[in-house]
Amino acid sequence: QVQLVESGGGLVQAGGSLRLSCAASGRTSSNYAVAWFRQAPGKEREFVVGVSWNGRQFYDTDSMKGRFTISRDNNKNMVYLQMNSLKSEDTAVYYCARADGFGLPRHSYEYNYWGQGTQVTVSS
């Protein structure tokens, strides 16, 4: 069993930064991708950014490429999301998720494990 726990969310003013963390436990293998998703009320869960088993970042669009950065520390079983230049529309619950394998999945259904999420609220 894999457990994922997000932390680091909170309230930040527009233009500010936050760093989210995702702690994983229950599995030592590193052959998996990890991604951050977000979901705002009334909206579908949205892919933000992922990182492959070998550290390659991948994005669904370029809209967040310049502001959001994902990284992973396999030795510590930690994944991070650095968010800069935050906007009101970034307000959402942010989830980390894990997909076994060597691919670059961008869809929720491709991910096997999910955390409970952490709330990020950006005020204008």
Largest sheet: 7 strands, mixed
Strand content: over 45%
Distance between the termini: 40 Å
> Strand-and-helix sequence, N→C?
EEEEEEEEEEE
Mean pLDDT across all amino acids: 93
* Broad structural category: mainly beta
Structure report:
There is one protein chain. By secondary structure, the chain is an all-beta fold. Helices cover 0% and strands 50% of the residues. The strands form two sheets. Strands 2, 4, 5, 6, 9, 10 and 11 form a seven-stranded mixed β-sheet that branches. Strand 4 and strand 5 form a beta hairpin.
List the helices and strands and how they pair.
Blueprint (H helix, E strand, L loop, with lengths): L2 E5 L2 E4 L4 E8 L6 E8 L6 E6 L5 E2 L9 E6 L4 E6 L8 E9 L12 E2 L3 E6 L1
Parallel strand pairs: 2-11
Antiparallel strand pairs: 1-3, 3-8, 4-5, 4-9, 5-6, 7-8, 9-10, 9-11
